[in-house]
Amino acid sequence: MHAEAPIGVVGTGYVGLVSAVCFAHLGHQVISMDVDEAKIATLNEGRTPIYEPGLEKLMEDNASRLTFTTSHDDLAPCRILFVAVDTPPSPSGDADLSSVHSVVREIAARGGERLIVMKSTVPVGTGHRVLSDLRALGAGGVRYAANPEFLREGAAIQDFLEPDRVVVGAFDAEDGEAVADLYRGIDADVIHTSVPTAEMIKYASNAFLATKISFINEIANVCEQVGADVRVVAHGMGLDHRIGPHFLQAGIGYGGSCFPKDVQALKQLAGNSGYHFQLLNAVIEVNALQKRRVVGKLKQRLGRLHGRRVALLGLTFKPNTDDLREAASIVLAGRLRDEGAEVRAYDPMIEPAEHPLFPGVTICPDVSSALEGADAAVLVTEWAEFGRLDWAAAAAIMRRPLLVDGRNFVDPAVILEAGLEYEGIGLGDGLSDHD
Ligand SMILES: NC(=O)c1ccc[n+]([C@@H]2O[C@H](COP(=O)([O-])OP(=O)(O)OC[C@H]3O[C@@H](n4cnc5c(N)ncnc54)[C@H](O)[C@@H]3O)[C@@H](O)[C@H]2O)c1
User: Fold this and answer.
1) What is the tens place of the pLDDT at every residue in 81-116?
2) What is the set of active-site residues?
3) Which CB contacts under 8 angstroms, 24+ apart, belong to 284-290?
4) To test the ligand 1 pocket, which listed residue (86, 261, 325) has its Cβ within 8 A of the most ligand atoms?
5) Which helix (H) or strand (E) holds 301?
6) Fewer CB near the last or first residue (10 Å), C or N of the chain?
């Protein structure tokens, strides 16, 4: 392994671009490749095609160590090639590995002594399969390691540079060391494992976090029946160090590019290997139902939704990203439109134009135009600016000042004081508990 050789990163999406920029920040030369010509053109102009806080600045600071290309041939000097292409769900629920296999074929065709390091989230067994594909393609010098990524969009740079752990699965101890060596300068435990174990750590981690979310959402739903406040329940639970405070925020369910597909893929993986993963079925079902509960809450307050105007505050699957993949807003907007409601929406990251994911929804340039004349507002994404909103002014322009807070994000007392009706998730029959 040549330590001085540049690192290759295939795929310049949320994971690939952040990894490339952060490796450059750690002092490595990095060549990033993507098939998307528009993305590479944008990157070559010094701009990032995605929104991720701090990324453009870090990219600018490390521009001398970063190269972007659409050609696999330009990766020729790289001995280590990270693969960070998308692995979306296929119609069966299994992970669609077509992008991964296409990259592997390109690398195999160029042969040589190189190490593929899989950063994409791939089902357990993928490493073994890629290795036998490489042999079949006559690329015996190309080796394979797994280095799953755990970063969160919106906090991706910090997560990459200050990870809770780095997981490296390798078929060969030397390859594992070579990958770990690239993270020199990062203060984190490196867990060396077999390739299948590394692949499973990623799936098990995401499935566990999704389970925590569905669990607290079910607790919230029971809280509504029995008059307890889930925020205080979660606080009381989270102080127990065996439980911990994270991922215990009740709301309208998880979305995004990872949890839904990874939970589904683990369920499929288990099923394909003959095991019925009962718990994950419930996690998925609870999450699907949770997105729809908001519609039920609106109906309880407004009666029929036909002809009602509903404002959605936030569309991205979480704040500080422009990512809409599997966002709860998509299901919610669709349900409301099906019920005959007029849907207006505002999100700081989404342009006020027709959006293919939100047919029939008017996307507004600011919060006020979304709220104007609305019969209800639903807080879907906890963008900081919604926490600072002048709610009295909001109440004044709404036809019916009603806020359904899908993230339990704003202080109910402030909302009530401003003259709105307030409904959260799992707050029981009163709004009197405080955490
Ligand atoms: N987004 C996250 O928060 C996150 C976190 C951890 C792990 N992951 C995993 O990392 C992987 C990448 O996720 P992402 O969100 O960065 O995806 P993304 O869709 O943002 O980026 C994928 C990139 O790969 C490129 N690509 C596709 N096929 C290619 C090919 N044949 N050659 C070169 N480039 C190709 C695409 O053009 C795109 O730019 C997925 O497996 C995902 O599950 C994502």
Assistant:
1) 999 999 999 988 889 999 999 999 999 999 999 999
2) 258
3) 284/260, 286/214, 286/217, 286/218, 286/253, 287/210, 287/213, 287/214, 287/217, 287/253, 287/254, 287/260, 288/253, 290/214, 290/217, 290/221, 290/251, 290/252, 290/253
4) 86
5) helix 278-302
6) C
Residue 118 C-alpha to ligand 1 middle, in angstroms?
Answer: 11
CB 10 within 8 A of CB 16: yes
CB 144 within 8 A of CB 127: yes
Q: How many CA atoms lie within 13 A of 267 on its CB side?
A: 21
> Tokens 């490796």 sit at which residue?
23
Of 304, 372, 293, the closest CA to residue 332 belongs to 293
Residues 383-428: tens digit of each pLDDT: 999 999 999 999 999 999 999 999 999 999 999 999 999 999 999 8
Specify which residues 190 forms β-bridges with.
Answer: 166
**Residue 194: which residues within 8 A CB-CB, separation 6 or more?**
169, 170, 171
Q: Which amino acids bring their CB within 6 angstroms of ligand 1?
A: 10-16, 33-36, 39, 84-87, 99, 102-103, 120-121, 149, 151, 153, 257-258
